[in-house]
Amino acid sequence: MSNQLIRFKLNLGYDQYLAVYQGIAKTVVTIADDGRRIVFPASNIQSYLTRTGIQGYFEMELTANNKFVGIKKLA
């Protein structure tokens, strides 16, 4: 089986993501383009954090066994 790609939008304000650093939030929950609810560690998108938060369109790659491979920003 091949890897699966899941696309989704995020619009997290800086204060929302700040909760990760404070230990309050450890995961991000969003709805993928195909309607699936996805939950993943907030640390997986930390590199996209700016002063305004994390906004954009992303693609997550998972193995056939649902193991995380990576996330890239598309737009």
What does the model show?
The chain is mainly beta. It has one domain (4-73): Beta Barrel (OB fold (Dihydrolipoamide Acetyltransferase, E2P)), CATH 2.40.50. It is built from one helix and five strands; from the N terminus they run E-H-E-E-E-E. The strands form two sheets. Strands 1-4-5 form a three-stranded antiparallel β-sheet. Strand 2 and strand 3 form a beta hairpin.
Alpha plus pi helix count: 1
What structural category characterises the helix and strand content?
A: mainly beta
Distance, first to last CA: 28 Å
Strand content: over 45%
The low-confidence runs, each spanning 5 or more residues with pLDDT under 50, are: none
Write down the domain tally: 1
How would you sum up this structure in a few lines?
The chain has one helix spanning about 15-20, and strands at about 5-15, 25-30, 35-40, 55-60, 70-75. With about 80 residues, the protein is mostly beta strands.
Give structural attributes:
75 residues; mainly beta; OB fold (Dihydrolipoamide Acetyltransferase, E2P); three-stranded antiparallel sheet; two-stranded antiparallel ribbon; 5 strands; globular
Itemize the secondary structure elements and their pairings.
Blueprint: E1 4-13, H1 14-21, E2 27-31, E3 37-41, E4 53-62, E5 68-73
